[in-house]
Structures are given as structure tokens and as C-alpha cells.
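Journal club side-thread
Mid-discussion, someone asked how the predicted structure for our own chain would compare to the paper's figures. Pasting it here so we can look after the session.
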Amino acid sequence: MPTISMFYGIIIRMYCGRTEHNPPHFHAYYQEFKALVNISTCEIMQGNIPSKQSKLIVAWAELHKEELLADWSLAINGENPFNIEPLK
């Protein structure tokens, strides 16, 4: 699962492969916490990340929604997604 961005101790990854399930999403990791984030709604679908980090993840997803959807298209076709600018 390639890492597509990292910021403030948060790692953003996206699985690659035709078997990846909808809705379009990415995986966020912070220390021992992890979550799945819906790209279309920019909401955490599953998992548990501390409030401060979840707000950063959602803000980043909203800023990069188009790039995330483009990466999703690549990933479900088995191609590696592109890196996305971290939150600054």
C-alpha cells in the first residue's frame, strides 16, 4: 500500500488493486490509530483517530479531493497513485 502523503505524524496511504472496494477512500494512520476516510464526503468511515489529527486529515482531504479521486482511479486499476502535497 503506497504512502501518498505525510504530515504532522500522519501517514496517508491508498491500496492498489482491482479488488479494492467502494466508496473511494484512503487509509490514515497516526501512531497506533488508523481510519478509513471517504474521499467524496471527506468523512471518517471507520476507525479511530484522535480529534486533532482527524480534523487535520479531513481538512487535507477537502483541499485535495480532486487529486485523491484521480489517485483512486489509478489505484483501482492496479497503478501506483501519485504523491499529494502534505498539509502545511
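Post-session note: The chain has a mean pLDDT of 93.
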